[in-house]
């Protein structure tokens, strides 16, 4: 039913590319110790944000979690406002008050991200309640990780969203680890999160989270049902973070042993950017020259933005008490 | 002015606010029961129907998050906890998100005007987890406003003000006050948030009191007047923001301060007000500040233990007399018998 146009497929690739190049550049700059905010980079997980956000309308609202840069950018957030936030500048999207985990951009349909696991699942559900009360055709989306599915609020929210038939899409980015804890110490063997969601009467699908086209198709399918008033849906995207839980390094650089370098390299073989590019080339939807030109364009955007962000202004100490109440 | 009970005043404030603002809705456990949170949501349900007054599962944290998400989209949710103690489960959403929303997102994510109503229980064997008042704990965190109506007029006025405020506000309502009758304006007159009220003028001792202790302090003051002691009673009304000016003016006038609270002393409102006097009115104090609060243990169930646990009018009167170095006669007669019969 959804066969995305060539233009959509090219946009999906470009979105993954923009997320990847931004996040890699920010991670490189992060090592300079000038971005003084705990940062959870999303390198490797770009296809989830890019695929889901492409399926949304401008009036829909997105909520995110601690690993939020991809969602912020895929929803149209500026690299400049993101980088400025990391640098603690007044020009940051949260004026240097939030840091990496507390981004906002309501003007482009990205409400907030937050650092507490599962917190925004309920908040997105509440926005969906408001949409249903007002009878408007808007959808709320919450992104969260597999560990959030171990929080009580996940179940409270699923139960409520399904009971009230709310227009909310819950997107679980299952990257197999909660900080350094693997799934097998956190969930019973054989757990399928989709089964849990289905037990709460949500329509649920699992998808290859490193295939941006597959994510986009699945999200579009589920969103169709949500928009038709069929109630909430759950999308589990299987993916993997390449970098450490928090910070710019690979785990092997830090001599951490909770996961192997072989495992990382196997997932890097399934790189969402390269797979999307290969698919476009194989389908004749883009040429190698075009892919390269897009990369140059993105890199230019990122370089200009991070330089301008770094040169931004510090918040005035007198503004410490702004917006307390 | 006609009289209303505290419960009737809460109801009228809610109904008038909902008439003015169609974005307001009310949810929480039992809000649409025929008993309607001790009668306070019955009229709202009758007038505005189940689309604006509706039940919720027992999921305090998610429900608070849901209220935040609805508020972010322009609604004004009222979340009701029939007992304060269940609100502990909502602290992540309330403190980690609602309280910080405006600040943490640099003012760019708008505001979340969520109003939380929570009822504080007392006596009748309600025990350790149905009788706590979380105002000091909540007021510790910048970003929340926390109010405690004591008189019927403020039950209505603070409800109206909370529902006109653009940030999150917690209203702690004391179950023992629901039957209290007093003058309440018919018009929708908000009681400003962050403003204390001198409910009885006096010259010898200032009693700063919160919630039910205001009523107990007034009873004590009436009795002490017969002994020739003039007590000024300040109803704190709002613990965040705290009306320092009104409290300090009274302390400077009388030179003696007793603080009476419905929670514990340690790290509580009575300590905060005592610290305020020590820092800002030390030279005006004629003697040590006194605190009266719950006994330093969890709330017991058995009647004689309960009687020993709660401060009351006679305790306040005895403390005031001792601050004046006067001995107390038998004062127990000023405490009304506990005739509470529920529903709890």
Overall description:
The complex is a heterodimer of chains A (about 325) and B (about 350). With about 325 residues, chain A is of the alpha/beta class. Chain A has a single domain, classed as Thiamin diphosphate (ThDP)-binding fold, Pyr/PP domains (Rossmann fold), CATH 3.40.50.970. Chain A is built from eleven helices and nine strands. In chain A, the strands form two sheets. In chain A, strands 2-3-1-4-5-9-8 form a seven-stranded mixed sheet, sandwiched between helices. Chain A has a two-stranded antiparallel sheet with strand order 6-7. The radius of gyration of chain A is 19 Å and the shape is globular. The relative contact order of chain A is 0.17. Chain B is of the alpha/beta class. Chain B folds into two domains: about 5-185, Thiamin diphosphate (ThDP)-binding fold, Pyr/PP domains (Rossmann fold), CATH 3.40.50.970; about 195-335, Rossmann fold (3-Layer(aba) Sandwich). In chain B, the strands form three sheets. Chain B has a seven-stranded mixed sheet, with helices on both faces. In chain B, strands 9-11-10-13-14 form a five-stranded mixed sheet, with helices on both faces. In chain B, strands 1-8 form a two-stranded antiparallel sheet. The model of chain B has no long low-confidence stretch (mean pLDDT about 95). Classes of the chains: A alpha/beta (about 325), B alpha/beta (about 350).
Strand order of the largest sheet of chain B: 3-2-4-5-7-6-12
Q: Share of helix among residues of chain B?
A: 25-40%
Specify which chain pair forms the largest interface. A-B, 43 and 40 residues
Largest sheet of chain A: 7 strands, mixed
Give the biggest sheet of chain B. Answer: 7 strands, mixed
Q: Which spans of chain B of ≥5 residues are poorly predicted at pLDDT below 50?
A: none
Average predicted local confidence, pLDDT of chain A: 97
> In the CATH hierarchy, what is the superfamily of chain A?
Thiamin diphosphate (ThDP)-binding fold, Pyr/PP domains
**Gap between N and C termini of chain A, in Å?**
48 Å
Count of DSSP E strands of chain B?
A: 14
Distance between the termini of chain B: 30 Å
* Relative strand content of chain B: 15-25%
CATH fold group of chain A: Rossmann fold
Number of domains of chain A: 1
Shape of chain B: globular
Q: What's the CATH H-level homologous superfamily of the largest domain in chain B?
A: Thiamin diphosphate (ThDP)-binding fold, Pyr/PP domains
Q: What's the architecture of chain A in CATH terms?
A: 3-Layer(aba) Sandwich
Number of domains of chain B: 2
What oligomeric arrangement do these chains adopt?
heterodimer
Q: How many H/I helical runs of chain A?
A: 11
Cα shape of chain A: globular
